[in-house]
Design a protein that fits this description.
- By secondary structure, this protein is an all-alpha fold.
- It is 68% helix and 0% strand.
């Protein structure tokens, strides 16, 4: 992988590239797990707020 990450227009893509370039797999996994937990929490809140007919 190239050391040049200037071609990434999205800051999240650039951050991901830096994690991959630095071989920070554990930190990247922690970030991804936290994001999944947030997504599931949001889904649970959405399901709980909807009424069933």
């Amino acid at each position: 992988m190239s050391d040049n990450i200037d071609h990434y227009s999205d800051p999240q893509d650039a951050s991901l590239a830096l994690y991959l370039m630095d071989n920070n797999g554990d930190e990247l996994t922690d970030i991804l797990v936290a994001a999944l937990e947030d997504a599931f929490r949001i889904l649970r809140e959405d399901c709980a707020s909807q009424t069933m007919h």
